[in-house]
Amino acid sequence: MGGYLAGYGPTTVHDWAGTAPRIEIGMMIFFAGFIGNIYHDDELREIRRAAARNQQQKTQAQGEKGKEGKVDKVYMIPENGLFRLVLYPHYFCEWIEWCGFWVIGGLACTPARNFVINELTTMLPRALNGKRWYIERFGKDKIGSKKAVIPGLI
Fold this sequence. Notes:
single chain; 6 helices
């Protein structure tokens, strides 16, 4: 991004005139997505941390040794934040984050646009396949009306 702006971006005071609102809006979009991404990733990590705590308590209660450090996989359906609406809100928030990056660079910023397109084309199929996995693992009843990645759409 920096290389693109240095090579093709605004170079004079007149070129920069009027870009502040776009950059500010882009930064707000970027940080909203960034914060959402961190929040939802942390929700997923908390499932593993809780499983590790439970396993450690069981191991200590039984007086077993040798299982420290290895946590049995635990699969759950998170319910906090956007997880109430979609199965992959961290993907959605990441897309919001990088769309903000694109706005900061300007809609004509080819590298930022290509990055957003790459994110969408690689992550959307993973989310759709992941939804099928959730349905197989937990059943249609538990998944309910949750979408894969975009609330109310996909």
